[in-house]
Structure formats: structure tokens, C-alpha cells
Write the C-alpha cells for this entry.
Amino acid sequence: MKLIEARGLTKEFRIFSRSEGVMGAFRDLFHRKYRVLRAVDEIDFAVDRGEMVGYIGANGAGKSTTIKMLTGILVPTAGTVTVNGYVPHKQRESYTKGIGVVFGQRSQLWWDIAVIESFKLLRRIYDVPRADFNRRLQQFDDILGLSSFLNLPVRKLSLGQRMRCDLAAALLHNPAILFLDEPTIGLDVLAKSKIREFLKEINNEFKTTVILTTHDLGDIEALCPRVAIIDQGKMLYDGLVDNLFSQWGQDKLEDIVKRIYMGQKPEPGLAGGGVSLV
Amino acid sequence: MNMHQYRPSGPLARYLTIFMHYLAQYAKIKMAYRWDFFVHIFTEFLQQSVSLIFILIIFSKVPAIQGWTRDQVLFIYGFFLVPFGIYSGFFNHLFDVPEKYVLQGEFDRILLRPINAWYQVVVETMKPELLVSMIVGIIIMIYSGSNMNLVPVWWDIPLAVILVIGAALVYAGVYTFLASLGFWSEGNLGLMPMVYNLSQYGRYPMTIYRGPVRFMLTWILPFAFVGFYPATILMHRYEYLGYALLTPVVGIVCFVIAYRVWAAGIRRYRGTGS
Ligand SMILES: Nc1ncnc2c1ncn2[C@@H]1O[C@H](COP(=O)(O)OP(=O)(O)O)[C@@H](O)[C@H]1O
Ligand SMILES: [Mg+2]
């Protein structure tokens, strides 16, 4: 049994257009015109326990929407999904006990209260025993260096500090799976490398499964043996990073990915060519 | 047994502990802006006093309105303030849901946590200092009650508790319902001020309204049950006994319906585009 298993996973959004003028607004009340946007289009996706998978794609490709379905925030339009034995959007309250989520764009912590107070509140919410909590916090502090700003409210933190706190917060309850949506966005080189080091260690020690979206291919190269590439809602590639290198006969991931985004195919005849481009 | 190792368990204990934590954090933040906090409580007092003076002025001109004396109207108002206090403290800010939680995508965070979403929104947005209205209400009830020589009986107290809970559930239901509309309408419908004004109708005797208004306040937006109906039974006037006793039922029905709409709304939640 796979830890994450999605089949034909699809999400459509209705995009409403507003009509002009008062009469238009009135007409919209009863009959609004809309078009349907397929943000995620029949994706099949399976992940084993302990894997670290990179999930990449151009802006608007459907990465965040996928993550939101896997974490139970959004109800899929079609398809099935089970994660960690649960159907995320149906068994939300039990399911979320076993996952951690970080959105790089938006903090999950309370804006106005000290970071440490947020952590304590999370301890209650996830029902983490005090001893476990203290031990984990200590460990996170050792790698991420949190202690100097634990007493500041989140709104006073720099982006790098905030991201480190968000990461720690997402892991305090020792989740089986960690979902990261652009965790390194806007960070400097040093902060990035700290976060990568931290994720590696967590994955090593706790066998935490990590799904990570990013625009920084350095994250993938540093962390993820496997990468999934999505474009306009469709899965373009799902397999080992190493296979990409041999398929394309190139040694720069960035060049390969750029070509895939541009719709090119690897030339046939290269070593390992034609393997798992789906 | 070592008392320090005793940890209350079960969902109720967990929810209560979480509530206490939110409360403690809230108090801390408020104490940082102490001045605001007291101004807030003071304006609440002031608002209630204005309403009170309004009633007193009217009754300085006439002895009774449609068979209701000054003290009876005061008593209804006093009772009304108790569930109103609960509403102001806990449910008023459900009106943040359409804008802040749905449109701006804050609801993502709520849905990622292993506790009930409605409960989270309520404890995140509560303003428990506004519970002061309850105290003002109780004082007004005691004052007007003694003016009209009301002799309390033992069952007045448990009855009052049940009626207040029922009335607060009416408030919770109406505001949960309004909040849920945010999952359909993309933003605030601007209904909140209108509904707030309607809720204030519940603190006067229903007899002063025309039939359709009375019907609406009883069966559609049942604000007659947050003040008038339950108050009559506590001042021992029994011509609305049936309605008064319906208060908890109306509260429960109202809240259950609203909660279902809320749950259906959550399934429609779509967050924000990137
Ligand atoms: N709540 C929403 N309402 C309407 N459209 C949305 C919403 N969320 C995402 N989309 C659209 O779906 C597509 C995929 O978005 P997203 O999953 O955020 O992409 P990515 O994370 O890969 O940049 C985009 O075209 C985006 O505009
Ligand atoms: Mg995104």
C-alpha cells in the first residue's frame, strides 16, 4: 500500500465573468457566465513512505492546487485520493493530525503572538506530549537556530526566520508526511542551505515523507531523487532525476526542465531514451 | 497517584484547553493595548446606557405601551442583553469569514488543523470582554424585577440558563448561516448590518410590531427568541408560554440548519489563485 495514492485527480475552477452595468449585475445574480479552468487534469500520483519527491512546473501549472487536494483543503472535482489511509477532504480532522504543511507564500502561524506561544498552542491542538514537544523543539533549534527569535511575534520576523519557524511548527507533531509549497521562495543562499540540511536530516531520522514544490532546481538536486513535472494541469514526467539526465543527454537540470516546459521531447537514441516520459 | 501526571483527555478536554490557550493569548495581546481594551469595554457600556435612557425617556411620557409597563420592557431588555453578550463575545465576528477567511484564503490554515473549523474561527475571532453586556443585563433584570415585585422561584434559574443557551444558539445559527454565504457569494454580502438591526427588534414586546414583522421575527429570522419570548416567562407573564418554551428548540434547529449550510460551504471552499 502506497502512502499517497491519487488516481485521475482533477480540479476544475469556474471562472466567472462579470457583466457590465447595473442590468448586467442583475442578470449575473441569476445566470452568471463562467468558463471552466482545469487546474489539475487527471493526475496519477503515488508515493512511498520515506520518499522525497520534488514537484515542479511553471507558474500556474497546478502545483499548489494539487497540494491543496492532497492536504484536504480542496475537494477534488474528480478522481480519488488516499493519503496515509485517509481520504483527506472527507476525514479532515483525523487526517491532518498526521501531516505537516508549509506554504512559503503565507505563514501558518498566528501573526500577533510570540512564536513560542504559537508552538505551545500547536502542541495542544495536535495533542503532543510535553516531553516529546520539548525534545523536538530542542532538536529543531539545534539545526535551524530558532532560539534568538522564539519570543518575537511572527510579524516581526524576517522571511528566512519565518520560514524556519513555519517548518518547525509543521513538524512538532512528528507527521508522517510533510507538504512544502515553495518553502525556499525569496530566501538567500544561506537560509536555503540551512533548510535543505534540515529537511535531509528530518527525512533521514524520522523517515518523514516529503513532497516539495519549488522553482529552485537546486532544492531538487539537493534533496529529491525523484521529480514530478506538471504543466497546464497535466503530469509531464514522473521519475528519477537521474533518468532525466540520461534521457536528455545533458548534465544541467535547468536546461532539461526548460526544454520540457517548452514542450520539447528528448531526442530518441540517447542512452535510456524514451523511458518514463509519460 | 501523582497528580502532576494526570492529564485530562478526550476531545472535550482538548477543546477546553485550546480555548483557555486562545483566551490567554488574547488577554496578552489586549494587555499590550490596554487602553484600546478599556475603551472598548467602556463604549459597550455606553451603548447599552443609550438604549436604556431611550427606554426611560419613552416611559416618562406614557405609563405603558400596548399593555407593557416600563419595568417589563426594561426586564425584556435586561434578559436580551445576556444572550446578546454571548453573541458579541463569540459570534459577532463570524462576519469576518467571507472577507478575511474565504476571499483572502485564511481558511487554508483553518482546514489544515485537526480541530473543528467552526470552533477555530470562533476562538480566533472572539472578543470575550464584550461578555460584560451580560452583567449589565443581569443588573437591569434584578432592578426592574424588584420594581415590579417579581418573586423569583427556584426553577427560574435553571430555566433562565436553558433560555439563554437557546437564545444564544439562535444568534450563533443566524451568524453562522450568514458567514457560510461567503462560500457562495465571494465576499461580504453586506447583510450583516441589516441583520444586526433586526436582531435589536427582539428586545421589545412583539405586540408593538405588525403581523408580518412579528411572523418574520418568530419563524424566519427568529430574533423574537433572543429577547421577548423567553423574557416573558421569567417575569411570570404566561400569555406567550408556548413560544417561550420553544426557545431552546428554535435555537437548536436554527443552529443545526446553519451548521449544515456551513459544512456544505466548506466543501465549496476554493482558496485563492496564486
Ligand atoms: N481559487 C482559485 N480560483 C480560481 N482559479 C484558481 C484558484 N486556484 C488556482 N487557480 C488557477 O488554477 C491554475 C493553477 O494554479 P496553481 O495550482 O496555484 O498553480 P502553481 O502553484 O503551479 O503556480 C492557475 O491558472 C490558477 O490561476
Ligand atoms: Mg503555487
